[in-house]
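Changelog note: in this version the structure field was regenerated for every chain. One regenerated record is shown below for reference.
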Amino acid sequence: MRIGELSARAGVSVRALRYYEEQGLLTSTRSASGQRHYTQHAVERVTFLQRMYAAGLSSRTIAELLPCVDSPSAETSDAALERMAEERDRLSDHIEELILSRGALDGLMATNRAHRESLRTA
C-alpha cells in the first residue's frame, strides 16, 4: 500500500509516517518512481508506535525497544523491560516536579487573590 493508504488505515498523518521512517522505526520499499510502499504489517507497526508514543516514550527510546518486537527473545525482552522501567522512573520524577510546580503556582495565585482582595477593600 502507498503512504496515503497507510496514513488512512493507521489514523496518522503522512508527515508522521515519514518521520517514523527517518527515525528508523518504520521501513518501506520504493517503486521505480520513488513512491513508498508498505506491507499490511505496517498498519500494526504504526499502531504499536502510537501506543509507545502515548506512553511518553521518545523516538530514541522506541528505537531501543524495537529489537524486542522484531527479534523476540528472553534477552531482548529483559532489556526492553529494564528500559521501560527506566522510562517509568523518569516519568515519575517528572510528575513529582510538576506537582511541586503546580503547588508553587497555587501559592502565587493565592497571593494574587489576596492582593486583589486588599485592593478592593482599600
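Spot check on this record: Helices lie at 3-10, 14-22, 41-54, 59-70, 74-121. The CA atoms of residues 65 and 79 lie 8 Å apart.
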